[in-house]
């Protein structure tokens, strides 16, 4: 089996961090580089967190490229559930290396160009606001042919939003970039709140992952135990939706997901509905569908895979 070549764009963030650990624990995926964006935390902080997570996994070889330091048009907003550092209670040693020199957008352009020159394609994975990708496909719309698929966490399709009644965080954080990406012609699989709200990190599931992680259970526990949104009313119990790792899980086991194609428009003008993913489920716009929207997730199978893949994947900090 030839591993699938991917670039991950992210803003760690606890759930981004778990997504990276899942990718590093999965030989089916060949991560060519990580691009970082401003989102949950400011760019400097998300870059540092990415370097620390790479180090934790023994992946000091992994290129980490910082990208856009703010959204295209709107003012930045930050995540509410990853704590002030972005990694919850987890405290890690300072990274032993600097990020790569090339800007994330240059790295993405060069990587996709190289794939086209070699007559292959790259899979893009997105776990944060779409600023970096919006810039890339505004600068080079022709690069769409070098991407076999964008698998992204973002949007609220039949669910209400999580940051406003209308919008999910990644869409709200840069609705103009999201509009560019959704209009780019890229093949897109969207894992939004409709999917992630089915995959709750219940105390039982967290305990199973910690137990499987053996000597590294403290590291995993420090990340996951912080992820209780305390929103018992909304989620019908303790725990929170573990959004971003679903992107990687989709690449590993697409059979665990069901999707439905529809046209999606990102609202980027109205104040009230900014960042809303307006979805034409029934073809009323007369415009071709452009997104495969994940509607169903086998959450038990997802958490079992996560426990298995995270087991033994991290090095003990400081050793
Ligand atoms: C998304 O928002 C961020 O806070 C998470 O990391 C995830 O990417 C969920 O709405
Ligand atoms: Ca994220």
Going by CATH, what is the homologous superfamily? Ribonucleoside hydrolase-like
Number of domains: 1
In the CATH hierarchy, the third-tier topology is known as Inosine-uridine Nucleoside N-ribohydrolase, Chain A
Helix content: 25-40%
Helix/strand structural class: alpha/beta
Low-pLDDT residue spans = none
Report the principal-axis shape: globular
Strand content: 15-25%
Gyration radius from CA atoms, angstroms: 18 Å
**DSSP strand tally:** 9
CATH class category name: Alpha Beta
Count of separate DSSP helical elements: 12
User: Alpha-carbon distance between the termini?
Assistant: 33 Å
The side-by-side strand order for the widest beta sheet comes to 3-2-1-4-5-6-9-7-8
What hetero molecules are bound to the protein chains? beta-D-ribofuranose, calcium ion
């Amino acid at each position: 089996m030839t591993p699938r070549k991917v670039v991950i764009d992210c803003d760690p963030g606890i759930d981004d961090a778990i997504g990276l650990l899942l990718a590093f624990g999965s030989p089916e995926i060949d991560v060519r580089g990580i691009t970082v964006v401003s989102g949950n935390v400011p760019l400097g902080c998300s870059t540092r967190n990415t370097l620390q997570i790479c180090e934790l996994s023994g992946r000091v070889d992994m290129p980490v490229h910082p990208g856009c330091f703010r959204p295209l048009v709107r003012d930045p907003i930050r995540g509410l559930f990853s704590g002030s550092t972005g990694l919850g209670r987890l405290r890690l040693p300072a990274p032993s290396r600097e990020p790569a020199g090339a800007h994330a957008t240059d790295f993405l352009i060069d990587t996709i160009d190289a794939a086209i020159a070699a007559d292959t394609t790259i899979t893009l994975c997105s776990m944060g606001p779409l600023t970096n990708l919006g810039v890339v496909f505004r600068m080079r719309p022709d690069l769409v042919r070098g991407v076999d698929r964008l698998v992204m966490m973002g949007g609220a399709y039949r669910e209400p939003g999580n940051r406003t009644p209308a919008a999910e965080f990644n869409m709200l954080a840069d609705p103009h970039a999201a509009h560019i990406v959704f209009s780019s012609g890229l093949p897109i699989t969207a894992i939004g709140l409709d999917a992630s709200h089915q995959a709750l990190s219940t105390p039982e599931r967290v305990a199973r992952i910690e137990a499987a992680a053996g000597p590294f259970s403290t590291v995993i526990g420090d990340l996951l135990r912080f992820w209780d949104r305390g929103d018992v009313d909304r989620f019908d119990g303790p725990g929170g939706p573990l959004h971003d790792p679903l992107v990687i899980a989709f690449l590993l086991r697409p059979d665990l997901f069901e999707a439905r194609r529809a046209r999606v428009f990102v609202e980027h003008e109205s104040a009230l509905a900014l960042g809303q993913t307006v979805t034409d489920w029934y073809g009323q716009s007369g415009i071709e569908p452009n997104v495969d929207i994940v509607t169903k997730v086998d959450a038990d199978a997802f958490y079992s895979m996560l426990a298995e893949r995270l087991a033994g994947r991290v090095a003990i900090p400081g050793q």
